[in-house]
């Protein structure tokens, strides 16, 4: 439904922001439209299988490896 589509959009936007600049998680949460950081972290973990911080670190390592390979 609409709620699921909105969550998908918010998660996609959050993932893009997490892999970009080192913006604080609380700012990303506000930017994607969640009012509560803990609620966002819970939803993100359910959706991605990891917390936003772990996701950010994993993407940073992935980007470093890609840079080394090119």
What can you see in these coordinates?
With 70 residues, the chain is an all-alpha fold. The protein contains 4 helices and no strands. It has helices at residues 2-19, 25-31, 37-48, 52-69. The model has no long low-confidence stretch (mean pLDDT 89).
Weakly predicted, low-confidence segments: none
Mean pLDDT: 89
Encode the helix/strand succession as letters: HHHH
- In terms of DSSP E residues, the strand content is under 5%
Write a concise synopsis of the structure shown.
The protein has 70 residues and is mainly α. The protein has helices spanning 2-19, 25-31, 37-48, 52-69. It is elongated, with a radius of gyration of 13 Å.
Structural descriptors:
single chain, 70 residues, mainly alpha, 4 helices, 79% helix, elongated
Write the layout of secondary structure elements.
Layout: H1 2-19, H2 25-31, H3 37-48, H4 52-69
């Amino acid at each position: 439904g609409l709620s699921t589509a909105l969550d998908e959009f918010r998660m996609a936007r959050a993932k893009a922001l997490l892999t970009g600049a080192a913006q604080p998680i609380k700012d990303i949460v506000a930017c994607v439209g969640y009012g509560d950081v803990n609620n966002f972290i819970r939803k993100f973990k359910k959706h991605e299988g990891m917390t936003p911080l772990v996701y950010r670190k994993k993407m940073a390592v992935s980007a470093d490896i890609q840079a080394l390979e090119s």
